[in-house]
Amino acid sequence: MASHRRPKQPSRTRVTVLTATAAAAVALTSQAAHADPKPTKSEVKAKVDKLYHEAEQSTEKYNGAKEQQEKLEKQIGALQDKVARGQQELNTLRSGLGSLAAAQYRSGGIDPSVQLFLASDPDSFLDEASALDQLTAKQTESLEKIQEKQRSLAQQRKEAQDKLADLADVRKTLGENKKKFQGKLAEAQRLLNTLTAAEREKIRQDDQRASRAAGDRVDLGNEVPASALGAAALQAADTRVGKPYVRSATGPNSFDCSGLTQWAYAQAGAQITRTTYTQINQGTRIARSQLKPGDLVFFNNTSHVGLYAGNNTVLHAPYPGAYVRYESMNTIGSFQAAVRI
């Protein structure tokens, strides 16, 4: 006879597990459907370029603070030497004053009128009294010198303390900007690591081709340089094409952007300052339409600089991982200003 036993119902625990598993599967499927797609090579490059520009802003501020730190350290050293010499002079003056006081004590222990009354030789006494007056005058002069030296030392010590406080602020700024650019560079590297080796090589080759094409455009332009100085600086920078970009480097075998322009003008015989933020104030401002080879061209809120090479092309040190090269002004960033040294 057939069995009519009632089928066993699944347990509540088993139902709960199955339901949770199904929900998780649906959630994963939904997440996969809505997940952001992997950025393309061109999108990664655009983000990396933006990060490099931001890192360069911090690098230039770091360079400026570094330069200020070195100046302050020299000033503090000179002040401390000056204070040490002044203290030695003060000690010598005090020693001299002590000798004068002892001499005065030996000569003038009695009131002058009493000394005259008791003196066996009044003429001799008057000579001694005159010498005593001179001694007193020297003592007064020495006291005045000591007081002046003390005032001078106090001022120098205060100046040194103020410089030390400035130095502490500068060192803090150095640390903050170093942390900023290191963070930007690390983020850029993480983005680059999302690309395959072949994609990274393709970006490098594209940059090389663009640089060669930009160099060819310069040769075709044949524009007259801004001056003999500008021509010499541009010629010097041209000899550095292919040298690597290195943060805070000033040549001759590696450069950052302002390090290259400073080095190039130094080879031409002109000393310009270290950072983009100061180089922009060193020459005559000119409009973009007035650019001639050798002029300095600034981009991205003056955080980047290069030498105008003619035919809308700039010779510059671009960013970490790249090399000194020619590049179209249209691909570097937003034009900010131009200066003729």
List keywords for this structure.
341 residues, alpha+beta, 6-stranded antiparallel sheet, 9 helices, elongated
Quickly describe the structure.
By secondary structure, the chain is an alpha+beta fold.
What would you say this structure looks like, in words?
This protein has 341 residues and is α+β, with helices and mostly antiparallel strands. It contains 9 helices and 6 strands; from the N terminus they run ααααααααβββββαβ. The chain has a 6-stranded antiparallel β-sheet. It is elongated and about 90 Å long. About 9% of the residues have low confidence.
Mean pLDDT equals 78
Contiguous low-pLDDT stretches (5 residues minimum) are 12-33, 113-119
Which structural category fits the helices and strands? alpha+beta
Q: Percent helix among the residues?
A: 55-70%
Question: How does the SSE layout of this entry go?
Answer:
Layout lengths: L11 H23 L6 H67 L4 H7 L3 H71 L4 H25 L6 H11 L18 H11 L8 H4 L4 E3 L9 E4 L4 E7 L2 E4 L8 E4 H4 L2 E6 L1
